[in-house]
């Protein structure tokens, strides 16, 4: 997933319930699918962030010294400005990019 190219909103917006439930016919099922995708997105973002921050990690036994790494701060700021995982999941849902299998 390319987080830089997403069109998901950063702020909270209101969606039309009928548009959200249209693919499944049930708003609760649609929300469940989007919630599962949001959890997947969150895991991917967290893993990516940890990998990038480990590049700048300095391991020191002394608690008195704290190093501020500007690159690490910039990476953290970038991830803070991203849309939340649930907003990304809703955007993917509205663009029909989420595959789901309805088997009972």
From TrEMBL:
Give the highest taxon in the source lineage.
Answer: Bacteria
Does Membrane appear among the keywords? Answer: no
4Fe-4S found in the keyword field: no
Q: Name one GO cellular component term.
A: DNA-directed RNA polymerase complex
Q: From the UniProt record, which GO molecular function terms apply?
A: DNA binding; DNA-directed RNA polymerase activity
**What are the alphabetically sorted keywords of the record?**
DNA-directed RNA polymerase, Transcription
Could you tell me the Gene Ontology terms of the biological process aspect for this record?
A: DNA-templated transcription
- Which protein are we looking at? RNA polymerase Rpb6
Species classification:
Bacteria, Pseudomonadati, Bacteroidota, Flavobacteriia, Flavobacteriales
């Amino acid at each position: 997933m390319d987080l830089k190219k997403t069109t998901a909103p950063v702020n909270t917006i209101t969606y039309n319930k009928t548009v959200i439930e249209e693919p499944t016919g049930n708003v609760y099922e649609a929300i469940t699918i989007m919630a599962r995708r949001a959890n997947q997105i969150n895991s991917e973002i967290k893993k990516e962030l940890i990998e990038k921050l480990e590049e700048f990690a300095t391991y020191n036994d002394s608690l008195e010294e704290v190093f501020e790494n500007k690159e690490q701060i910039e990476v953290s700021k970038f991830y803070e400005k991203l849309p939340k995982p649930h907003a990304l999941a809703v955007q993917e849902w509205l663009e029909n990019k989420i595959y789901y299998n309805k088997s009972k």
